[in-house]
Amino acid sequence: MDDQELIRLAIEARTKAYAPYSHFHVGAALLAADGTVYQGCNIENAAYTPSNCAERTAFFKAVSEGCRAFAAIAIVGGPEGGSLQLTAPCGVCRQVMMEFCDPGTFRILMADESGQRKEYLLKDLMPESFSAADLNLCTEEE
User: Fold this and answer.
1) Which residues contact 132 (CB under 8 A, 6 or more apart)?
2) Any idea which residues carry the catalytic annotation?
């Protein structure tokens, strides 16, 4: 799966967004290590906090189907009816990525309408992160 196809699948996922409050539509395409792609879109709720970002939708779909190994995610977003703009994952989505991805190899791709792209490793977007490894800092012997 090349990056351009992953971005195209994120753009496709964006068309399914449910964003009647923010009118900001986001799509994500999550590439599993085995080559399977899981799409996600943002899904809003009138109470706001039950809303779910596109990235987490894709991750939760994948994890609920038994997938636990991921290589990359493409994210696109922008105002409803407007142009795509470079859209970074929120902090909560970054934390979910930390749960399931190797921060040194997991790639995050962003693209806009003009074809501009940005690519980051998760470790670069989530420095000094908290992960499952941190829960193992204390042992019973201490």
Assistant:
1) 99
2) 55
